Amino acid sequence: LHARYVLNLLHETRKHLKQLPNISHVSTCYSEEVTVCGDLHGQLDDLFLIFYKNGLPSPSKSYVFNGDFVDRGKQSLEILIILFTFLLIYPKEVHLNRGNHEDHMVNLRYGFCVGLVAMSRVHGKKILKMIQNVF
Hints:
- The chain is mainly α.
- The protein is built from 6 helices and 3 strands, in the order H-E-H-E-H-E-H-H-H.
- The protein has one domain (about 25-130): Metallo-dependent phosphatases (Purple Acid Phosphatase, chain A, domain 2), CATH 3.60.21.10.
């Protein structure tokens, strides 16, 4: 995606998240299920495997992602784009909890910042700043 679209997605995600309470309550009834995922750490293939086995988020398929979306893997930005897009499309079915890897100091240590700036030399710093605002 062009940086303009990534920045727009980040802006809309931040705007949505600011409206939410700090604690999310997710409940199901006996006929529904929730898929709980954690620690993707930039491994896009893992996210695709989860969606392949459990289905994409939808009004009938809820997901809770328990943080640690980025760092370590090479496709952290792609994971954020996918998760934030599903969050905006299905705000009642997709829930994102912040993990310790959604912190600027941890991102500096484990490579997300360097990888993002290297990937997009022109807009990388601006995107990184916006991602930190979202986190």
